[in-house]
Amino acid sequence: MSIEELFAAHLGPDKQAAEDAADDILIVRLLARLPEEPALRSAWLMSCQISEEHLIEIIAQRLDRPRGGLEARLCAATMTAAIRIVDETVSLAAAKHRLKTTTAEVNQHLAKAIRKAAPCRSATRSRPGYGRTTEAGALQPRRLRDRSSAAEH
Asked: For residue 81, what pLDDT band results from cuts at 50, 70 and 90?
């Protein structure tokens, strides 16, 4: 299963509760304020670090490497940074410039960024038997589920 197929199967407004969709709208608005709010940016970066720590565990397991090893840490750091950049860019475009982006487009941007950034290609391949929550949550935090619905509000 490709990253795009994984995202399409598990991420998007039709796959989340109304409360989560409302949270996503708020998150888009907050992320759009990052350039003007240094304290908010600090909190955002700490949140990204937490995502990175979760991703390290998954990557280490997939690569059969130690959790604290350079390969797993570097892979998780670059993938998390790629996700963060896409999230910030899409959120800013939606909130400040009213650019509407579909879930499929966001998922495509994310998959492309992850592939370009990941120094450990085998960690980005989906494997049968990996759970939806673990894999999708690690590759894409809840705040990234959908930008199209947020842009419309």
From this structure: very high
What digits encode the pLDDT tens for the residues 84-118?
999 999 999 999 999 988 888 998 999 999 988 87
Number of DSSP helices (H) and strands (E) in the chain, helices first: 7, 0
Q: Where are the domains of the chain?
A: 3-151
Q: CA–CA separation, 126 vs 76, rounded Å?
A: 15
| pTM of the entire predicted model | 0.73
Question: Given the structure tokens 């809840």, which residue do they identify?
Answer: 142
CA distances from 18 to 14, 21, 100 (A): 9, 5, 19
Q: Of 116, 106, 112, 115, whose CA–CA distance to 147 is shortest?
A: 106
**Amino acid symbol at 143:** R
Query: Residue 76 to residues 36, 39, 51, 143: CA-CA distances in angstroms?
Result: 28, 24, 9, 18
Q: Residue 128's pLDDT is what?
A: 46
